[in-house]
Amino acid sequence: MSTTVEISAIRAKYREPQDIFHENSMTKKDPFHLFTKWFDEALVREDLVEPNAMCLATVNKDGYPSARFVLLKTYDERGFTFFTNYDSRKAKDMEENPNVAATIYWLPLKRSIRIEGSVTKISKEESEVYFHSRPRASQIGALASPQSKAIPSREYLDEIESGIKKELGDGQVPIPNWGGYLITPRAIEFWQGQTNRLHDRIRFRKSDEKADEKLVHQADLEGWVYERLAP
Ligand SMILES: Cc1cc2nc3c(=O)[nH]c(=O)nc-3n(C[C@H](O)[C@H](O)[C@H](O)COP(=O)(O)O)c2cc1C
After folding, report:
1. In this protein, which residues make up the domain named Pyridoxine 5'-phosphate oxidase dimerisation C-terminal (predicted)?
2. Is 91 among the domain residues?
């Protein structure tokens, strides 16, 4: 590309002012509680498609990062679970280095959540239950796709898929080397965009340090503190 495309003039126009996100507005100073509140608010927005899409960053053993979107499938106080192919590039990265970061962005709400933590595979049984709960076409798709590998053509993929369909008939789709990862978070940050551009950032992190209640505050969750960060 020889010409520079100028996109610096693009400015997001806020259709409605955002509420100031103040520490005192949190009914419980607990990152999982707040995540649930924000996620529920995102779920009911009709202008928000796939609110569970998150950009997952991994880093390989040589220190090179790579990022891609995955869908968040469950969350609770243990952490955040997504599913993927265990032979994929991201799986290889996570085998070499379990440290990951994930970011969600909800444009209509001008909100973003950043998660940092480390991954472990969930149990084979749990992965199987989820795999078989997916639409049959998705199960077959996962079985047919050697995710992240170079393949000769689109037809190659279609042929594998129709071969599998023929072979299986109405039978159950066997789970490929595929399953869930649980991100156990050590930090969760909540970002609220503001019209005046002085955005709000509240970061919760796991820490045993004593909260000074000036910069570092005790969360309502054992072993966690929170702090406000400059935007
Ligand atoms: C919105 C969105 C959601 C996606 N969800 C998943 C997912 O849940 N699991 C997955 O393996 N790939 C998902 N993908 C595809 C990945 O982004 C990626 O192409 C694939 O996992 C291969 O990544 P890798 O080669 O870095 O391992 C999604 C893509 C998009 C755009």
Report:
1. 178-231
2. yes
**pLDDT, tens only, 203-229:** 999 999 999 999 999 999 999 999 999
81 Cβ inside 6 Å of ligand 1: no
Nearest to 31 by CA among 105, 119, 115, 100: 115
- Contact between 119 and 94 under an 8 Å Cβ cutoff? The reply is yes
Report which residue type is found at 53.
Answer: A
Read off the amino acid at residue 37.
Answer: K
Q: Which of 117, 118, 163 is nearest to 143 (CA)?
A: 163
Highest averaged pLDDT of the listed ranges 9-13, 19-23, 155-159: 155-159
What mean pLDDT is predicted for residues 35-44? 96
52, 66, 68: which to mutate for ligand 1, most atoms within 8 A of CB? 68
Helix (H, G, I), strand (E, B) or coil at 158: helix
What is the residue with the minimal CA distance to atom 3 of ligand 1? Answer: 70
Does a structural domain hold residue 80? yes
The number of domains in the chain is 1
Q: What CATH number should be reported for the domain holding residue 62? A: 2.30.110.10
160-197 pLDDT, tens digit per residue, is: 999 999 999 999 999 999 999 999 999 999 999 987 77
Q: Domain span at residue 92?
A: 23-133+177-228
Residue 190 domain flag: yes
Mention every residue, 6+ apart, whose C-beta is less than 8 A from residue 107: 48
Rounded CA-CA distance 172/224 in Å is 44
